[in-house]
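Protocol step 4 of 6: record predicted structures for both targets in the notebook before any analysis. Target 1:
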Amino acid sequence: LDEFEQRKQGDSLGVAIPHQDVLIVADLTGKTGAQLLARLTYDFASKGQVPISVLPFFWENGELTPFLAV
């Protein structure tokens, strides 16, 4: 994730693990990017056989921080 952080062009790096077959790493720009990641994460989690988390995370300073997009 640190490597993705160095390459990002947007405001922040988003990470999500909605179910057992999906890992999402997203280069987010603004509030719209965060909202889209949250929507995508929820959609994938609701359709997977083994959901893991409907919450997306920001990758900041080497830590994952969960967020809710409103």
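Target 2:
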Amino acid sequence: QKTGKNNYVTLNCNATDALRAYFNERHPTEHEFIFTKATCRRQPINRVQAYRIVRTAAEETVQDEHISCHSLRKTFGYHAWKNGTPPALLMDVYNHSSYKVTQHYLGIEQDERDEIYMNLEL
């Protein structure tokens, strides 16, 4: 929405299995949004409700109060980078103009510095 470009996302087996389970429970029609308001199944949840859902899940699992929907986006990129995703692909996913911007966004520089100190045995 921010850039006006379409962004298509391929879902892996874990995501499709989770969506199937969700659909089996809710039985949505073809024209419904995936995540709808409890009061009206024709309207999508808003940003505040999405934030509440993510925050509740974080508090119940990782006990972290400092998390948001944007945290999920950054965490996805960080783990993709750690698993060997080429920087150019991450730049494209995030629509960043340079690798430097992507590095800063994901906190890669500090992470690499920390790793140097953690692996150094004196």
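Step 5 preliminary note on target 2. The chain has a mean pLDDT of 86. The helical segments are 13-26, 47-61, 69-82, 87-94, 99-106, 108-119.
Proceed to step 6 after PI sign-off.
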